[in-house]
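lol ok so funny story. i was supposed to be doing the assay writeup but got distracted and ended up predicting the structure for this chain instead. priorities right. anyway since i did it might as well share w the group, maybe its usefull for someone
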Amino acid sequence: MFTDLEGSTEMLTRLGDEENQTLLSSHRKIIREKLEENGGLEVKTTGDGFMIAFYSARKAVTCAVEIQRDLKILTARTPTHS
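and the output, tada:
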């Protein structure tokens, strides 16, 4: 599975470096928590993206859905993000 934070360059411009780094930190934390919960293996990270391996396609899909759900919650709690 690969992840990418859509619009990250625009987000950096809009939020500034400090707030952007705070959001990226939260983004990474959510992904890593869900990886651990679903048995994923972090293969590589580049910028805001992750390359992730799973032994089960079902676990990969479950993880992706959980990541999206938690990121949606994070975005809703972060009014300056929109």
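The helical segments are 8-15, 17-38, 57-77. The mean pLDDT is 90.
back to the writeup now i swear
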